[in-house]
């Protein structure tokens, strides 16, 4: 499995006077240099940004207390909606120099928020430990990971915030605060509200996070029909620690990727002999202009992008690509045995628009089987509208979180996450704009319409628009950031500040 290239992700440079900052808050002066920040899909950017990278907690505190401008903390800048990107005249803080493990004992790691998940996993593995939850990529910072309530898959595994025991945050109003899960009363309420804070309360310096012993997974990948997927969904959710389904629009093809911890096994073969990508390569050789040797060297994501790019907005063409993709998945069934960190990261394709919805599937009055019903309704809407929807639509699950702002809020619930996608297969601005219009128009409207009936909330890193009522969040924000310094254009659009 290949990791997503992040070469276009944010490259943050320090432009302030680091040594002076460490000693004296008055010297937290912006340099004349400036940066352009761009997210991974090239869908959001922020120009002429001065980025400060404090290298100690005291320089971080000095930076916040010495400036009266807006302040926005940017992690790896990966969020599809550019969630962290500052507006102009904002002090942009990046913690790439606050990236170490401060303590590790009793299966709790205390880590600076600027460390990437990848680097944290490497360090933890030296003590035979790992994170209890992993997303499909690991290039994000720990701060960005928690602030958006990122999730992996498995009904017993909450989003990352469910494993945070405490955190230290530098706020504009109160300076440094430390909040813990063991706090009581109002302090505990602050912990739950500020934990998934979307950068709106200040800059988190560090987290204490529960970790678990390293484990290997035996992963089985196979294809079901839609009817079989619906019939077996409950069983598969319960039988596997991690399980995701990938539904291919217009095809009776649901890919199941399911894994359990295992101590090593012989790997039986399920797929066909030969190259599983052959149906996609054949179609590209027939229809594309590419050199056939070049086509043979392409991976799955690249093949899909090249194929779609031939006529990306033509539903009839996209159906043909999806049919070739479905044949690939059938050919590619089988077992893999590897570490959790290798198998739970997965290739999610090239530059893309995504919208991911989260809804409760048990408790809270929602009937069992809501997750299967949601998928059938969504596919029915997409297919009857004739949308050029490529594969796959990803369906994952998680346990709940006590964090008020997590889309999976509710410690007793089980939650389902569904991600719709359209790939930005070209650099041609006109076609990219048309893809964007289709995705942010009809595609997203259909998803949100279906989601409404299930009380669905949108993943914070994948919400482009729409206002949200968040009274408690706003009250606490006004308390710790009375001058409203930690917002950006996105928070203005969504929360009104
Ligand atoms: C290819 C791809 C695959 C993805 N897969 C998944 C997935 O499987 N599951 C999932 O849930 N998400 C997924 N995401 C979303 C991704 O996990 C989040 O966008 C990511 O966690 C953001 O991390 P970041 O370091 O890039 O933060 P940024 O995008 O830079 O920031 C995100 C938010 O966190 C805030 N923030 C960051 N650091 C701090 C800090 N120290 N203090 C205060 N606020 C802070 C920012 O202000 C902003 O509000 C994926 C994204 C991409 C591009």
Number of domains: 3
The overall average pLDDT, rounded, is 90
Residues in helix, %: 25-40%
Number of helices: 15
Total strand segments = 20
CATH architecture of the largest domain: 2-Layer Sandwich
Shape, per Cα inertia axes: globular
Determine the N-to-C terminus distance. 41 Å
- The strand order across the widest sheet is 16-13-15-14-18-19-17-20
Chemical compounds bound to the protein: flavin-adenine dinucleotide
Derived structural class: alpha+beta
Largest sheet: 8 strands, antiparallel
Low-pLDDT segments, ≥5 res: 1-32
Radius of gyration: 23 Å
| CATH T-level fold name of the largest domain | Alpha-Beta Plaits
Kindly estimate the percentage of residues that lie in beta strands according to DSSP: 15-25%
**CATH class membership of the largest domain:** Alpha Beta
């Amino acid at each position: 499995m290949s990791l997503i290239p992040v070469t276009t992700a944010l490259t943050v440079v320090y432009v302030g006077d680091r040594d002076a900052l460490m000693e004296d808050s008055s010297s937290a002066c912006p340099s004349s240099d400036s940066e352009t920040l761009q997210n991974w899909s090239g869908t959001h950017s922020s120009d002429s940004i001065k980025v400060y990278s404090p290298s100690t907690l005291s320089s971080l505190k000095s930076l916040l207390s010495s400036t009266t401008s807006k302040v926005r903390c940017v992690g790896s800048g990966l969020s599809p909606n550019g969630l962290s990107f500052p507006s102009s005249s904002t002090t942009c803080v990046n913690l790439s120099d606050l990236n170490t493990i401060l303590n590790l004992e009793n299966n709790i790691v205390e880590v600076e928020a600027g460390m990437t998940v990848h680097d944290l996993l490497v360090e933890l593995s030296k003590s035979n430990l790992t994170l209890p939850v992993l997303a499909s990529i690991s290039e994000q910072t720990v701060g960005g990971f928690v602030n958006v309530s990122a999730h992996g898959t498995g009904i017993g595994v909450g989003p990352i915030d469910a494993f945070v025991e405490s955190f230290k945050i530098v706020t504009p109003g109160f300076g440094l605060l430390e909040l813990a899960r063991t706090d009581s009363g109002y302090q505990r309420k602050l912990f739950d509200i500020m934990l998934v804070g979307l950068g709106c309360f200040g800059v988190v310096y560090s987290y204490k996070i529960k970790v678990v012993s390293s484990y290997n997974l035996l992963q089985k990948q196979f294809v079901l029909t839609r009817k079989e997927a619906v019939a077996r969904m409950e069983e598969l959710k319960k039988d596997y620690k991690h399980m995701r389904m990938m539904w291919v629009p217009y095809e009776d093809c649901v890919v199941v990727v399911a894994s359990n911890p295992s101590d090593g096994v012989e790997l039986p073969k399920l797929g066909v002999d030969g190259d599983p990508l052959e149906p996609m390569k054949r179609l590209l050789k027939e229809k594309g202009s590419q050199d056939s040797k070049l086509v043979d060297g392409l991976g799955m994501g690249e093949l899909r992008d090249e194929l779609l790019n031939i006529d990306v907005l033509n539903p009839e063409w996209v159906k043909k690509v999806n049919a070739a993709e479905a044949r690939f998945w059938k050919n590619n069934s089988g077992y893999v045995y590897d570490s959790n960190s290798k198998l739970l990261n997965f290739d999610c394709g090239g530059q893309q628009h995504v919208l991911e919805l989260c809804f409760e599937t048990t408790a809270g009055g929602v009937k069992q089987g809501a997750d299967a019903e949601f998928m059938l309704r969504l596919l029915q809407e997409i297919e009857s509208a004739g949308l050029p929807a490529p594969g796959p639509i990803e369906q994952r699950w998680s346990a709940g979180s006590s964090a008020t702002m997590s889309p999976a809020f509710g410690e007793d619930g089980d939650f389902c996450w569904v991600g719709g996608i359209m790939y930005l297969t070209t650099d041609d601005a006109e076609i990219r704009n048309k893809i964007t219009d289709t995705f942010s128009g009809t595609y997203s409207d259909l998803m949100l319409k279906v989601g409404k009936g299930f009380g669905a909330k949108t993943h914070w890193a994948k919400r482009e628009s729409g206002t949200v009522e968040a009274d408690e969040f706003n009250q606490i924000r006004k308390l710790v950031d009375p001058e409203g310094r930690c917002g950006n254009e996105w928070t203005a659009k969504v929360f009104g500040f």
